[in-house]
Amino acid sequence: MSPEDADVHIELGVLYNLSREYDKAIASFKTALKLKPNDHSLWNKLGATQANSVHSTEAILAYQQALDLKPNCVHAWANMGISYANQVFSHALL
Question: 40-66 burial by CB neighbour count: b if 16+ within 10 A, else e?
Fold first, then answer.
Protein backbone atom coordinates (compact mmCIF):
# COMPACT_ATOMS: atom_id res chain seq x y z
CA MET A 1 0.00 0.00 0.00
CA SER A 2 1.30 3.41 -0.92
CA PRO A 3 0.61 6.08 1.72
CA GLU A 4 0.65 8.71 -1.04
CA ASP A 5 -2.11 7.01 -3.05
CA ALA A 6 -5.39 8.72 -2.20
CA ASP A 7 -7.39 6.07 -4.05
CA VAL A 8 -6.20 3.38 -1.63
CA HIS A 9 -7.44 5.45 1.31
CA ILE A 10 -10.74 6.13 -0.47
CA GLU A 11 -11.33 2.43 -1.07
CA LEU A 12 -10.45 1.64 2.54
CA GLY A 13 -12.91 4.32 3.65
CA VAL A 14 -15.66 2.80 1.53
CA LEU A 15 -14.95 -0.69 2.89
CA TYR A 16 -14.88 0.55 6.48
CA ASN A 17 -18.13 2.43 5.87
CA LEU A 18 -19.80 -0.70 4.50
CA SER A 19 -18.69 -2.68 7.55
CA ARG A 20 -19.97 0.15 9.79
CA GLU A 21 -16.53 0.96 11.15
CA TYR A 22 -17.26 4.65 10.83
CA ASP A 23 -14.33 6.02 12.82
CA LYS A 24 -11.88 4.11 10.61
CA ALA A 25 -13.76 5.21 7.48
CA ILE A 26 -13.65 8.85 8.55
CA ALA A 27 -9.90 8.58 9.24
CA SER A 28 -9.32 7.02 5.81
CA PHE A 29 -11.34 9.71 4.03
CA LYS A 30 -9.54 12.47 5.93
CA THR A 31 -6.19 10.98 4.91
CA ALA A 32 -7.34 10.87 1.29
CA LEU A 33 -8.49 14.49 1.53
CA LYS A 34 -5.00 15.55 2.58
CA LEU A 35 -3.87 14.15 -0.76
CA LYS A 36 -6.89 15.28 -2.82
CA PRO A 37 -8.39 18.31 -1.05
CA ASN A 38 -10.30 19.49 -4.12
CA ASP A 39 -12.27 16.27 -4.69
CA HIS A 40 -15.93 17.17 -4.16
CA SER A 41 -16.99 13.52 -4.30
CA LEU A 42 -14.57 12.66 -1.51
CA TRP A 43 -15.92 15.47 0.67
CA ASN A 44 -19.41 14.06 0.07
CA LYS A 45 -18.25 10.57 1.08
CA LEU A 46 -16.75 11.98 4.27
CA GLY A 47 -20.00 13.79 5.03
CA ALA A 48 -22.10 10.70 4.40
CA THR A 49 -19.89 8.67 6.71
CA GLN A 50 -20.05 11.32 9.40
CA ALA A 51 -23.83 11.44 9.06
CA ASN A 52 -24.02 7.64 9.37
CA SER A 53 -22.02 7.86 12.57
CA VAL A 54 -24.44 10.45 13.99
CA HIS A 55 -22.18 13.46 13.48
CA SER A 56 -24.60 15.65 11.52
CA THR A 57 -22.84 18.92 12.30
CA GLU A 58 -19.52 17.67 10.93
CA ALA A 59 -21.32 16.11 7.97
CA ILE A 60 -22.87 19.45 7.04
CA LEU A 61 -19.42 21.06 7.03
CA ALA A 62 -18.11 18.32 4.71
CA TYR A 63 -21.11 18.70 2.39
CA GLN A 64 -20.49 22.46 2.31
CA GLN A 65 -16.90 21.80 1.20
CA ALA A 66 -18.25 19.55 -1.57
CA LEU A 67 -20.66 22.26 -2.67
CA ASP A 68 -17.97 24.95 -2.56
CA LEU A 69 -16.01 22.82 -5.03
CA LYS A 70 -19.02 21.81 -7.16
CA PRO A 71 -22.12 23.92 -6.47
CA ASN A 72 -24.41 21.72 -8.55
CA CYS A 73 -23.49 18.44 -6.79
CA VAL A 74 -26.94 16.94 -6.31
CA HIS A 75 -25.76 14.26 -3.89
CA ALA A 76 -24.21 16.81 -1.53
CA TRP A 77 -27.37 18.97 -1.63
CA ALA A 78 -29.60 15.99 -0.85
CA ASN A 79 -27.30 14.70 1.88
CA MET A 80 -27.04 18.15 3.45
CA GLY A 81 -30.82 18.39 3.58
CA ILE A 82 -31.03 15.00 5.28
CA SER A 83 -28.40 16.03 7.84
CA TYR A 84 -30.26 19.25 8.63
CA ALA A 85 -33.49 17.28 9.01
CA ASN A 86 -31.74 14.81 11.32
CA GLN A 87 -30.52 17.68 13.48
CA VAL A 88 -34.02 19.10 13.78
CA PHE A 89 -35.46 15.65 14.51
CA SER A 90 -32.85 14.87 17.17
CA HIS A 91 -33.45 18.24 18.87
CA ALA A 92 -37.20 17.58 18.84
CA LEU A 93 -36.61 14.37 20.79
CA LEU A 94 -34.85 16.25 23.58
Answer: bebbbbbbbbbbebebbebbbbbbebb
- Average the pLDDT over 26-30 and give the result: 97
Judge contact between 86 and 51, C-beta under 8 A.
yes
pTM of the model: 0.89
pLDDT at residue number 86? 80
What's the rounded Cα separation, in Å, for the pair 60 and 68? 12
Alpha helices by DSSP H, the chain: 6-18, 22-35, 40-52, 56-69, 74-93
Counting beta carbons within 10 angstroms of the beta carbon of residue 85, is it exposed (0 to 12), middle (13 to 18) or buried (19 or more)?
exposed
